[in-house]
TrEMBL record:
Residues 31-485 form the Glycoside hydrolase family domain. Its EC number is 3.2.1.4. GO terms for molecular function: cellulase activity. It comes from Coffea arabica (Arabian coffee). Keywords: Carbohydrate metabolism, Cellulose degradation, Glycosidase, Hydrolase, Polysaccharide degradation, Signal. It catalyses: Endohydrolysis of (1->4)-beta-D-glucosidic linkages in cellulose, lichenin and cereal beta-D-glucans. One of its GO terms (biological process) is cellulose catabolic process. The keyword Signal applies. It is an enzyme of class 3 (hydrolase). This is Endoglucanase. The active site is at H412, D463, E472.
């Protein structure tokens, strides 16, 4: 007998059934373990001189001369994913989201708070260098990805050119500059009490970088083209970063000029557009959630629009709501695209929890047409995504390396897949490293806490080092997840 129900209705019912039946019993201790590991992952991505308290001991010092050929100090920062390039746009976004995780959920991090702050400082220190090394210049990248990707070698052995790329008034990059401003401003909030001098320096630099981004408008994709595209091409343009950067400066400084900027420029920078994808490229949903807080807490009428758009974003993710438009796998995972899908899952989960926090604090609900969604319902939706990543999924596999009994063993990551410099002191050259890329053996070094790209639209996952779309980690996947698992690790959290 064939069903007379439309295929979309059947699919929606299946998703609803999964949501109602999913009940994996992760404890606060499990979430605390995931929190510790999600922060630890960043130590595996460090570039530069490693500190004495480095915990992922298989890593070593790397790229200690970055910038020297250009008479600037660009040592430090993070490698974005499984390669050895320092891309400024995703690194800045990572720092912004990590800082936001601490701002919202730092009180739930307990003994991991200092490790989290150290991770933010590692990124912020590098961004400070990149923004202040030369007047009216922002250094946006170190390393040519086209050359780097022809090699498979540990960062400790790198012999590929460490070319430096910058944006200037003549060759602008408002997207990378405004995101850098957002990162420095958000980090300034993190250190406002514990290190006020550092916080002031971060905020002052953020203001200067934002002014540079706004005065010299243009996309860094146009200025730097082949070395940033297609890797981190600014597909959404630079307008969303300008509004995002101004919003963080408004939040960090409480300077009325940034409120005026948002009021005057918001409509031309994306405030009127609903968007349902929050990532290193498109900041619109995050900006609206951040500004909605101003309306909820202070009844700032200028921000009422952002509350409405935030509601629309939240409603789009929840099955059964009038403007539901998200895609979920049969197993209940939010699905956006085949490459590195979990970046959208972690960023969406973080926004759901952050918005739920804002609503809870102010007795609000999200309006979905004639329906409303409570903060508790929003939290439930986020929890299912977090739990899926940690192992409550059809494969019964954790997509966080080192968490749980079963997790991926063949991670698309050079440093993790090649024997450590401590175990194999001899140099592994550019071409010699490919034997480890193609090896069927598990990675010799465990990149603890790394969240990988994740399964496909049918919940299938290939634990294959060559399948980078599914098996590569990235800093911007982990950064928002830090805040999400911190929320659930708190004993006082109720759903």
């Amino acid at each position: 007998m064939t069903s007379c129900l439309p295929k979309f209705t059947i699919k929606l019912l299946l998703i609803l059934c999964f949501f109602l039946s999913s009940s994996h019993a992760f404890t606060t201790r499990d979430y605390s373990d995931a929190l510790e590991k999600s922060i630890l992952f960043f130590e595996g991505q460090r570039s530069g001189k490693l500190p004495s308290n480095q915990r992922l001991s298989w890593r070593g010092d790397s790229a200690l001369s970055d910038g020297s050929g250009y008479h600037v100090d660009l040592v430090g920062g993070y490698y974005d994913a499984g390669d050895n390039v320092k891309f400024g746009l995703p690194m800045a976004f990572t720092t912004t989201l990590f800082a936001w995780s601490i701002i919202e959920f730092g009180s739930s991090m307990h003994n991991q708070l200092e490790n989290a702050k150290a991770a933010v400082r590692w990124g912020a220190d590098y961004l400070l260098k990149a923004a202040t090394a030369t007047p009216a210049t922002l250094y946006a990248q170190v390393g040519d990805p086209n050359i780097d990707h022809r090699c498979w070698e540990r960062p400790e052995d790198m012999d590929t050119p460490r070319n430096v790329y910058k944006v200037t008034s003549q060759n602008p990059g408002s997207d990378v500059a405004a995101e850098t401003a957002a990162a420095l401003a958000a980090a300034s909030i993190v250190f406002k009490d514990s290190d006020p001098h550092y916080s002031t320096k971060l905020l002052h630099t953020a203001m200067e970088v934002f002014d540079f981004a706004d005065r010299h408008r243009g996309s860094y994709s146009d200025s730097l083209n082949s070395v940033v595209c297609p890797f981190y091409c600014s597909y959404s343009g630079y307008q969303d970063e300008l509004l995002w950067g101004a919003s963080w400066l408004h939040t960090a400084s409480e300077n009325s000029s940034y409120l005026a900027y948002i009021q005057s420029n918001g409509h031309t920078l994306g405030a009127d557009n609903d968007d349902y994808s929050f990532s290193w490229d498109d900041k619109r949903p995050g900006t609206k959630v951040l500004l909605a807080k101003g309306f909820l807490e202070k009844s700032t009428q200028e921000f009422q629009l952002y509350k409405a758009h935030s509601d629309s974003y939240i409603c789009s993710l929840i099955p059964g709501m009038p403007n539901f438009q998200a895609q979920y796998t049969p197993g209940g995972l939010l699905y956006k695209q085949s490459e590195s899908n979990l970046q959208y899952v972690t960023s969406s989960s973080f926004l759901l929890l952050t918005y739920a926090k804002y609503l809870r604090s102010n007795g609000g609900v999200a309006a979905c047409g004639v329906s409303t969604i409570t903060a508790d319902k929003i939290i439930e939706t986020a929890k299912r995504q977090v739990d899926y990543i940690l192992g409550d999924n059809p494969a019964k596999m954790s997509y966080m390396v080192g968490f749980g009994q079963r997790y991926p063993q063949h991670v698309h990551h050079r440093g993790s897949s090649v024997p450590s410099v401590h175990a194999h002191p001899g140099r592994v050259s550019c071409s010699d490293g490919f034997q480890y890329l193609y090896s069927r053996l598990p990675n010799p070094n465990i990149l603890v806490g790394a969240i990988l790209g994740g399964p496909d639209s049918r919940d299938n996952f290939a634990d294959d080092r060559n399948n980078y779309q599914q098996s590569e980690p990235a800093t911007y996947i982990n950064a928002p997840f830090v805040g999400a698992v911190a929320f659930f690790s708190d004993e006082s959290t109720t759903v």
